[in-house]
């Protein structure tokens, strides 16, 4: 049993502060707090990592759903020490992102993600995602408590994240056969090499867990949600809409029984 109190600290927010950055953080925050409350877990909340050191000593679980905010070097060192001492970090969706930098190119105005300290702590790095599409998710580690009660596969509509899993000892929880990046020209982020595509040329990791010291990290790429006022998707894949029209409200992963169960399992995992 962890030395930390049975509390969770939840960070949900976009960048710049107060901006949605294409995601409905209020919905995600409320759903996470509801699921924590179901299990009798008290929680504190924040929009970014600025004061995370204040909450780690009284928390057993850190949950992050962010689109832009990331821990700076000091915050990352505090998080890493906390995990080594028995804390657990559940990173969702955009947590493997961070600072996007401009690339000096006359032909391509897209930005690229910068590798920062927190990517090493997470064991994952976001490269890009093509337009929102429908896809099947395969569940692995059927004997793992994180995937307990999940079906072998489930369908969702989400951003098909391209995330490099950099820890060879991580246990893969979810994958999807998304194939090579088919983003339209000028869409998304730049990257030098697709290090997220597995050796078979079609599979991408959608979730993993890794032990770190006395604690651990679990990351789940799924979880996009937006409303008309928070949406920034110019279009979607034709698997979602034949004309590529973006649904005004999108919460598909959050509304699946499998994702909800995965979050519940992750909270149990985080409590130690």
List descriptors.
272 residues; alpha/beta; Rossmann fold; nine-stranded mixed β-sheet; two-stranded antiparallel sheet; 6 helices; 13 strands; globular
Give the ordered list of helices and strands.
EHEHEHEEEHEEEEEEEHH
Radius of gyration: 17 Å
- What gross morphology would you assign? globular
Determine the CATH superfamily.
Answer: Class I glutamine amidotransferase (GATase) domain
Number of helices: 6
**Low-confidence segments, ≥5 residues, pLDDT <50?**
none
Number of strands: 13
Structural class: alpha/beta
Percent helix:
10-25%
**What is the name of the CATH class?**
Alpha Beta
The assigned CATH architecture is: 3-Layer(aba) Sandwich
What distance separates the N and C termini? 6 Å
Would you give the CATH topology? Rossmann fold
Overall pLDDT confidence:
95
User: Largest sheet, if any?
Assistant: 9 strands, mixed
The fraction of residues in strands falls at: 25-35%
| Number of discrete domains | 1
* Major sheet: arrangement of strands: 2-1-3-4-13-12-11-8-9
